[in-house]
UniProtKB/TrEMBL annotation:
InterPro entries (UniProt xref): dTDP_Gluc_deHydtase, NAD(P)-bd_dom, NAD(P)-bd_dom_sf
Recorded family membership: Belongs to the NAD(P)-dependent epimerase/dehydratase family. dTDP-glucose dehydratase subfamily.
EC number of the protein: 4.2.1.46
MF term (GO), any: dTDP-glucose 4,6-dehydratase activity
Enzyme category, top tier: lyase
Listed Pfam families: GDP_Man_Dehyd
Name of the protein described by the UniProt record: dTDP-glucose 4,6-dehydratase
SUPFAM superfamilies registered for this protein in UniProt: NAD(P)-binding Rossmann-fold domains
Cofactor(s) it depends on: NAD(+)
Key words, A-Z: Lyase, NAD
Annotated organism of origin: Oceaniovalibus guishaninsula JLT2003
Length: 346
């Protein structure tokens, strides 16, 4: 299958591109190369005749039309987005422009190309979304495909808006869309502004490890390679119009994630031990969702997908990846906003 992946130079996109190439799919990666993208993430594919890169912005309809015409993809996997909640608090406009308007332009370009190609049944527009659109859970319960939308940050509201557009293009125009809403991802090549890479890199440098509030916010963690596998499973097997919730069934409080990372680093870099002494509680993020958790029964029962990496094993692998790949992360640390406290709102 020839897949047009948007956002392929980002964290999850690059994992999808690697897995899709390993499974023999041809890839066109469309990415604007924002601050969150790393050319190094896909450097190993340079010279691969079945990997193509198009630097383009999903808000640029003319560029999208030209890329669809040039490559005639069998499917779109749409991951391009502004993705950092803290940045969405400081600058929501970019989130509305890329996540809502950009998705609108991509849907229109896909619809025009699909219509012009005779509306092939096998075509898919796969929209990759987040569990954050469902809001915040209390101590109990889990999100699934029937959960009511209740976004609470500019990021999650913009993703919710894009989800609604995608479903509407399926219902109104018959575009063969599929949607997935996934829990928090972690693993190699995650931009060093998210909890896990920030913790690893600060700890290595002997810097404080900031924890928002008490650190008791709970997330359901999924290794990015398991997410990529779930996404390709949905893309190739799900019926048009369907939605799947994806999660790792690995709930953990932020403070416990940080403590686990510190313990792994105590083992790998004993000269800095105990790294947990660097933990520092800082003012909480405004509107910080308390708990996310996914019930992945539908994707397990209908498509046979389940995660393969346990949280403890995945965290160890992630620490080892950052220790071995300083050349990947070091240049990203000088990018705008990295290492600063963002998203406090005033
Ligand atoms: N990270 C998570 O835990 C998580 C969980 C569930 C869903 N998601 C969703 O998965 C997708 C990918 O997330 P990620 O963590 O890999 O994000 P990321 O920030 O690491 O990567 C986003 C990529 O999109 C590109 N991009 C941004 N704006 C663009 C534009 N206007 N035009 C073209 N390209 C643009 C960036 O250059 C970057 O390469 C997002 O849609 C996100 O909402 C993420």
């Amino acid at each position: 299958m020839k897949i047009l992946v948007t956002g392929g130079s980002g964290f999850i996109g690059s994992a999808v591109v690697h897995l899709a190439r390993a499974r023999g799919h041809r890839i066109v990666n469309l990415d604007a190369m924002t601050y969150a993208a790393s050319p190094a993430s896909l450097a190993d594919l340079q010279g691969d005749p079945d990997y193509r890169f198009e630097q383009a912005d999903i808000r640029d309809r003319a560029a999208l039309d030209q890329i669809f015409a040039a490559h005639a993809p069998d499917a779109v996997m749409h991951l391009a987005a502004e993705s950092h909640v803290d940045r969405s608090i400081d600058g929501p406009a970019a989130f509305v422009e890329t996540n809502v308007l950009g998705t609108f332009h991509l849907l229109e370009a896909a619809r025009a190309w699909w219509t012009g190609a005779g509306r092939p049944d096998g075509f898919r527009f796969h929209h990759i979304s987040t569990d954050e659109v469902f809001g915040s859970l209390g101590e109990t319960g889990r999100f699934d495909e029937t959960t009511r939308y209740d976004p609470r940050s500019p990021y999650s509201a913009s993703k919710a808006g894009s989800d609604h557009l995608v479903r509407a293009w399926g219902e109104t125009y018959g575009l063969p869309v599929v949607l997935t809403n996934c829990s928090n991802n972690y693993g190699p090549r995650q931009f060093p502004e998210k909890l896990i890479p920030v913790t690893i890199l600060n700890a290595l440098a002997g810097r404080k490890l900031p924890i928002y509030g008490a650190g008791d916010n709970v997330r359901d963690w999924l290794h990015v390679e398991d997410h990529a596998d779930a996404l390709l499973t949905v893309l190739t097997r799900a019926a048009p119009g369907t939605t799947y919730a994806i999660g790792g069934q690995a709930e953990a409080r932020n403070i416990d994630i940080v403590r686990k990372l510190c313990a792994i680093l105590d083992d790998r870099r004993p000269q800095g031990a105990p790294h947990a002494d660097l933990i520092e509680h800082v003012t909480d993020r405004p509107g910080h969702d308390r708990r996310y958790a996914i019930d992945p029964a539908r994707i397990r029962d209908e498509l046979g997908w389940r995660p393969s990496v346990t949280l403890d094993e995945g965290l160890e692998r992630t620490v080892d990846w950052y220790l071995a790949n300083e050349a990947w992360w070091r240049p990203l640390q000088t990018r705008q906003g990295v290492g600063e406290r963002l998203g406090r709102a005033s």
